[in-house]
């Protein structure tokens, strides 16, 4: 009487190795069975367990299939590597963008009011025109010294 054995891929996490295209797993006997057909007959070799490394060792007997498995794994590694590099670059770009985007001080903040008051005091005591705050080089200097501070125009400075 012939015994019917259910063969299938091993359970658990998804199997990524391409060796599983050439093997089925018999859960009852804990063996993987080679399904490669050579000259009208199936190989049928049994490898204990479901470790892809051991299955690859058996595939070395079938040179064409072994070469195909190796090529597929190389292609998958390259694809995975390119994907991870792209993700890494996008994260890096986001980090750089967030570093470059500096939040400005609120006009109601104490720090903003202190800097503006001292700027007005400087303009008054140094006897320089109010239009100094609209000079591009002066604004660049202020941004270099305090990136969060955007100086007001000459109107608000006159009032201080």
UniProtKB/TrEMBL annotation:
Broad class of the protein's primary localization: nucleus
Compartment(s) of residence: Nucleus
Top-level taxon of the source organism: Eukaryota
Record flagged with keyword Zinc-finger: yes
MF-aspect GO terms: zinc ion binding
Protein keywords: Metal-binding, Nucleus, Zinc, Zinc-finger
Annotated GO CC locations: nucleus
InterPro entries for the chain: ZnF_BED_domain_contain
Transmembrane segments: none
The name this protein goes by in its record: BED-type domain-containing protein
Organism of origin: Amphimedon queenslandica
